[in-house]
């Protein structure tokens, strides 16, 4: 189904987040500098789709996810969930909203309370929201353990007794126990072995279809984002530089940074596609470059790139890119 025929579940507009950097006197003297983690990021999630967010470490993907969920307060911009503005909600209203928006974290061990059994961990969200009796909560937890491929005996175990893959299944079960509409997955398989990664990804795909979930899937792995996503947004240094359907992006990447990401993955290289090797490191988000954020590493950069910031513009159906050189043979 075309995205034009689907309703918008989440609408993110001009989202900004910067973190203060204090000097030797701490907060007394005020912030001397700021880390610009998210810089005017805008995108939409449609009901029932998987939207992949990909980019290098430090590009602002995880901060974006936490800001959407209200775990981090945005400095500017808006996040609208089913027409309701999220950034201005009170703590009480935000808690109610989290029944519909849940998150799976990167580290399956640190995100689970080591002092509680798996059963207690799974039932806690139900208790917080006052859902079901004690027996009903236990039955729901046991059923969900089976859904994510674990056994009833795991209900009585503690997190340290489980493997990394099993712990991530628990993290997923905890996120799904409230039957959310939107699931935010922040690098959910990056800490796992490759064989376990494929099991978790296959399970996520099946659950997404069975439960009609909308997913925001964050990763730095090109092959993972290609497998699981319907549409993909590419982030660099806190900005969204390209967005397209998965097929469009892999058939015809337009932004030089997207092309460089594909060049870095051996099995994604195309003999007919130019190979781009990036020089240098990603610039500091404390002092981001003027103009195009990518111009310090871009092999095609011209003077305009160093001065003027490119706008994310529509170049085809469902395909947006922020680059001054589009249409000039790049």
From TrEMBL:
Q: Which GO terms describe its molecular function?
A: ATP binding
Looking up Pfam families in the UniProt record yields: ABC_tran (PF00005), oligo_HPY (PF08352)
Gene3D superfamilies per UniProt: P-loop containing nucleotide triphosphate hydrolases
InterPro entries tied to this protein: AAA+_ATPase, ABC_transp_ATP-bind, ABC_transporter-like_ATP-bd, ABC_transporter-like_CS, Oligopep_ABC_C, P-loop_NTPase
Which top-rank group of organisms is this from? Bacteria
Q: Which UniProt keywords apply?
A: ATP-binding, Nucleotide-binding, Transport
Cite the ABC transporter domain residue spans from the record. 10-262
Cross-referenced PANTHER family, in alphabetical order? D,D-DIPEPTIDE TRANSPORT ATP-BINDING PROTEIN DDPF-RELATED, TRANSPORT ATP-BINDING PROTEIN
Q: Which protein family is named in the record?
A: Belongs to the ABC transporter superfamily.
NCBIfam families for the chain: oligo_HPY, PRK11308.1
Official protein name in the record: ABC transporter ATP-binding protein
Q: Which species is the source of this protein?
A: Paenibacillus yanchengensis
Lineage in the entry? Answer: Bacteria, Bacillati, Bacillota, Bacilli, Bacillales
